[in-house]
Design a protein that fits this description.
By secondary structure, this protein is of the alpha/beta class. The chain contains 11 helices and 18 strands. About 30% of the residues lie in helices and about 25% in strands. α7 runs parallel beside α9. The radius of gyration is 29 Å and the shape is elongated.
């Protein structure tokens, strides 16, 4: 039997806890607001949810006193980093199960299934979400991620061992947990009416329906005690980032721009139709630099209808985008540049173009490669109608 459509699934991110056990170690800040890699813990969970196309929306549950301020913060976060899902903010309750019940009340009527997650678990992966959704799609009414218990577990009574439990039958439970919305709402209504006290939602649903499991992850830990804060201080990692640039200019007449490539004048070359100085190579290079840190394109930063950039020196544009890259924390370490044109012959200028590009980038000669090629008389470049350039730039960014 097939379950609810993936298009009807929402996530509830619980961020309403007081975090008493962490209060002193965190300077009194609630753990869901602690920052990890530049974002609060609850936002990391939201990011992971958004990476699954089956998630239609998210309910953020915050402490009642924080709802107004946090709704503004979430709205700003979506403006800065649109996760592509619907969202709503609601107030939590005194207990975890009260907060979940409030989150359920905030869901749209057409939400057929829901994934409930503790924001203090910021490290879960999209794989868990995919497994939970697949189980719901296949008809499960409740599904939870679990990991095997590796330690021997004993039941203790009054300081004495009462029983050694069979760890093969035991599992540690994680979130997110997935449920048909109707069965979870019914479970919470019963819990409220009959006074159930539970530690997770599966404990409720187990009384009404079968709950199945999927593999959890050892890395999906919960930030609970002061020692867990060390997990938020992981070593910074330097990662490579690559940008790619492409630019084209058509050849012009005697009143158009003289040909410049990589800041080098090319005597005898065709003229270029352009608003700036028409340096097709440096334009491609600037776009590639912007690509290393998600900076958009040069047309956005230096529009061709702005008189300030009439006959602008493209070397200055490259320096501007290098400054932007530096502000974004990206260090350019390599560039591979190619010009495609039938005319003129660029071999006599190649070494000078490469040296000048390296100078503009502040790199050593071995960090910049330049080459020129033709398209064997094919296309508009082969027909000597214009010139184009491509650039691949590698940067390093510390995360």
């Amino acid at each position: 039997m097939r379950g609810p459509s993936m298009n009807d699934i929402w996530g509830i991110i619980l961020a309403a806890g007081s975090g008493r056990r962490l209060a002193e170690a965190s300077g009194g800040e609630r753990k869901q607001y602690l920052e990890y890699r530049g974002a609060p813990l609850f936002w990391h969970s939201a990011r992971t949810f958004s990476r699954n196309a089956g998630i239609k929306g998210l309910v953020f549950v915050f402490p009642p006193d924080d709802v107004t301020a946090m709704e503004k913060q979430v709205r700003q976060a979506f403006r800065t980093e649109d996760l592509g899902v619907k969202w709503v903010v609601t107030a939590g309750g005194e207990r975890r199960q009260d907060s979940v019940r409030n989150g359920l009340a905030a869901l749209p009527r057409d939400c057929a299934s829901v994934l409930v997650h503790d924001s203090a678990r910021p490290f879960f992966s999209p794989r868990i979400l995919a497994d939970l959704i697949t189980a719901l799609e296949n008809g499960a009414q409740g599904v939870i991620p679990v990991i095997p218990v590796t330690d021997t577990v004993k039941r203790v009574d009054g300081g004495k061992v009462a029983e050694t439990l069979n760890r093969a039958e035991l599992a540690a439970v994680q979130t997110p947990q997935g449920f048909e919305t109707a069965i979870l709402k019914e479970a919470h209504e019963r819990a409220l009416a009959e006074g159930w006290e539970v530690t997770d939602d599966a404990s409720m649903v187990e009384r009404l329906a079968e709950v199945v499991t999927v593999p959890g992850e050892a890395a999906n830990v919960k930030i609970t005690v002061p020692e867990d804060l060390n997990r938020l201080k992981d070593a910074r990692t330097t990662v490579p980032c690559v940008g790619w640039g492409y630019d084209v200019h058509r050849f012009g007449g005697e009143n158009d721009r003289p040909m410049v490539l990589g800041g080098v004048n090319i005597p005898g070359g065709p003229t270029i139709v352009a608003h700036s100085d028409g340096d097709v190579l440096l334009h491609a290079l600037a776009d590639a630099i912007l690509g290393t840190f998600g900076g958009g394109d040069i047309g956005t930063h230096f529009p061709d209808n702005d008189p300030n950039f009439d006959n602008a020196n493209s070397g200055m544009l490259v320096r501007e985008v290098l400054t932007m890259a530096e502000r974004a924390g990206t260090r350019i370490v390599h560039a591979d540049l190619t010009v495609i044109t039938q005319v003129p012959r660029l071999a006599p200028h190649s070494a000078l173009i490469a040296r000048n590009a390296a100078r503009l980038l502040g790199l050593e000669p071995h960090q910049v490669n330049f080459k020129a090629t033709t398209e064997e008389k094919l296309g508009f470049t082969g027909e000597k109608k214009g010139i184009k350039a491509v650039a691949s730039v590698t940067g390093l960014k510390e995360l």
